[in-house]
Amino acid sequence: MKAKLLLLLCSLFWVSQANAATRYVSDDVYAFLHAGPSNKYRILGSINAGEKIEFLDRDANTKYVQIKDAEGRTGWMDGRFLQTEESFRSRLPVLEAELKETQQQLATVDERHAQDVADKVNLIERQQQELTTLKAELSEISSSHEQLTTENARLTSLMDDKEHQMRLDWLVHGGIVAGIGALVGFILPMIPLRRRKRQDRWMN
User: Fold this and answer.
1) Radius of gyration of the chain (CA)
2) pLDDT band at 2 (very low <50, low <70, confident <90, very high)
3) What is the DSSP string of 57-97?
4) How many DSSP H helices and E strands does the chain contain?
5) Element at 192 (helix H, strand E)
6) Tens digits of per-residue pLDDT, 191-202?
7) Angle at CA of residue 13, ends 12 and 18, nearest 5°
8) Strand, coil or helix: 76
9) Of 66, 86, 106, which one is at a domain's C-terminal end?
């Protein structure tokens, strides 16, 4: 008995939850709220298209449904004008917020992209300046190298000429010394002989 009672209570709770489900008024209609479950009953007001309402009950004969709107009014409207999916009007604020967030993200991405491009352009300009400086330094070094090569060739030529002149000088000096030595060697033996002959002649 207790089990049946518990099952009955659970069933009633489930039915009440099902009856109180959330519904949305279609976006493309203009619906009236009636006091009873047909259009023959007094009109209580209108329901905005896309409005979120609370589903309470359904009339099986007229297909009208009892609802509770956002203003707290309870009434009946044609069930054909309700849908279970969230209406576009209800989703519009969320979509607008998402669109705004996406636009901000795109703006941030554009800013980062622009900054990246600017950084790369600055880097290329600095590298171009450094390359120009290096080319100028290389040209200066090349010019200095050519001057040093020319000066080295001149000095080498001077050293060769100097060495050749020194060899000639040594050769000439050596010849002179040899000539003088030969002359002295030729003359010296003759000088004593002449003195002896003069002494011999005086004594006689």
Assistant:
1) 63
2) very low
3) EE-TTT-EEEEE-TTS-EEEEEGGGEESSPPHHHHHHHHHH
4) 3, 7
5) helix 190-203
6) 655 555 555 555
7) 95
8) strand
9) 86
**Domain count within the chain:** 2
What is the average pLDDT value for the chain, to the nearest integer? 78
Domain that holds residue 29: 2-86
Structure token digits, residue 192? 């004593």
31, 64, 86 - which closes a domain: 86
With H, G, I as helix, E, B as strand and everything else as coil, classify residue 39. Answer: coil
Q: Does residue 202 lie within any of the structural domains? A: no
| CATH of residue 69 | 2.30.30.40
| pLDDT tens track for 47-74 | 877 788 899 999 999 999 999 988 899 9
Determine, yes or no, domain membership for 197: no
pLDDT exceeds cutoff 50 at 157:
yes
The reply to whether 77 and 94 lie within a common domain is no
Given a contact cutoff of 8 angstroms between Cβ atoms, the answer to whether 76 and 66 are in contact is yes
Range name among 12-16, 107-111, 146-150, 154-158 with the lowest pLDDT average: 12-16
Higher pLDDT residue, 85 or 114? 114
| Adjacent-strand bridge partners of 53 | 23
Q: Please give the order of strands across the beta sheet that includes 52-58.
A: 43-47, 31-34, 74-78, 64-68, 52-58, 22-25, 82-83
